[in-house]
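From the pipeline queue, job 12 of 40. The input is one protein chain; the requested action is below.

Action: predict structure.
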Amino acid sequence: MAAALASSLALSSTTLRGASDPFKPRFPNLSAKPTNLALAVSPHSHSRHRKTLRISATVSVSSPETRTGPDELAAAILSKVMNSDRGVLLEKEQHKEVAQVAEALQSYCVSEPVKCPLIFGERDVLYCSVPTSPGGGYRSTLGRLVFKTKEMIQVIEAPDIVKNKVSFSAFGFLDGEVSLTAGKLKVLNDKWVQVIFEPPELKVGPLSFRYGGESEVKLQITYIDENIRLGKGSRGSLFVFRRQGESN
């Protein structure tokens, strides 16, 4: 559960010490104008005393180009993952569409996202391309019948602290949460980071205890702005995060 939880909340996991999909959208450019309009005028005689003009036109239209910017793409990916139960409710083709937009957004990512101050803050986990991965057994088909996920949050605090939390309601009345705390963020290169978490802590009602061992997760930051952050784990899972307090 700990490793799966860690992978879900930002980073595709590989356990340590116990412990998504390139598609590019093609949006038609409705404003494209015909080019290379050639007019050929030739006389065509119908009679000895009257001539008419025949006008032939050749039109070539340039191929439509993708002109959508990062703001439009960010809004598009949010519209696709919102209210999807973090990806559970999406069909295969819809996951492909999310991957298409994520791939397009990657070209707008800053050159060294791991050094961008926008990585800090508290974000909701809106989507994972492996939708049953976030939360481990709590998010499996059977687990969702018992545990209703209330929120998934990742917090990155300066200079290098990462906290992950999944809160749930068991049987509709018993609140609980699983958290990974004191994660130390280590920069691997200009796009990849690694986090090693302490054993997870489970709280159910008044009870609280730790279980399992440490876990390690890695993440490539593929896009970031003031609102959203996209990440791809070491096993290829795509994650979409949105800063808390943002409505769109």
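Job complete. The CA atoms of residues 88 and 131 lie 5 Å apart.
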